[in-house]
Amino acid sequence: MRCDLHHAHLFASDLDRSIRFYTEFFNGRVVLDLEMAGARNVFLRLGQGRLHFYDQPPRHPVRGNIHHIGIQTDDLEGMVAKLRAGGVPLKKEIKDYGFWKYVMVPAPDEVLIELFQVDRSRMTPDLTDYFS
């Protein structure tokens, strides 16, 4: 039996701001926007992944139980330039570990994003498959 992570569902104190952030910087695409379970819910496609949002402020400040969301890119430097040009404050520079480089990005409602890029030519076959 196969199980795949389908989505992370986040609270949003300003849903429209969250939608703009993920669509503008990460090319997200809204696929559903409806009232469900007493709140506006938005389903957003992000590459092969998905984020769902509740139009409600976070119930537990400082990221609740989520440490971060990982978003893989094929142009980390370009994404960092785009984020900085858009006014997103990055506290640290890109960390480079040879086959893996990343930067942590603050998102609305204190969500933390690990934005990363991998170099498959410097990986073992198991890691190459994991990041495909």
Counting helices, strands and paired strands, the structural category is: alpha/beta
Order of helices and strands: EHEEEEHEEEH
CATH class: Alpha Beta
Considering DSSP H and I runs of 4 or more, what fraction of the residues is helical?
Answer: 10-25%
Taking all Cα atoms into account, the compactness measure Rg is 16 Å
Q: Would you identify the CATH H-level superfamily?
A: 2,3-Dihydroxybiphenyl 1,2-Dioxygenase, domain 1
Number of strands: 8
The end-to-end distance, rounded to whole angstroms, is 20 Å
- Total domain modules: 1
The global form is: globular
- Main sheet: strands, sense, barrel: 4 strands, mixed
- Uncertain segments are none
Q: Name the average pLDDT.
A: 87
Strand content: 35-45%
Tally the helices: what do you get?
Answer: 3
Write the layout of secondary structure elements.
Blueprint: E1 8-11, H1 15-26, E2 29-36, E3 39-46, E4 49-54, E5 69-72, H2 76-85, E6 95-96, E7 100-107, E8 111-118, H3 125-130
Parallel strand pairs: 1-4, 5-8
Antiparallel strand pairs: 2-3, 3-4, 6-7, 7-8
Textual characterization of the structure:
This protein is α/β, with parallel strands linked by helices and 132 residues long. It has a single domain (8-130), classed as 2,3-Dihydroxybiphenyl 1,2-Dioxygenase, domain 1. 21% of the residues lie in helices and 36% in strands. The chain has three helices and eight strands. It has helices at residues 15-26, 76-85, 125-130, and strands at residues 8-11, 29-36, 39-46, 49-54, 69-72, 95-96, 100-107, 111-118. The strands form two sheets. Strands 1-4-3-2 form a four-stranded mixed sheet, with helices on one face. β3 (39-46) and β4 (49-54) form a beta hairpin. The longest helix is centred in the N-terminal third of the chain and has 12 residues, at 15-26. The radius of gyration is 16 Å and the shape is globular. The two termini are 20 Å apart. The model has no long low-confidence stretch (mean pLDDT 87).
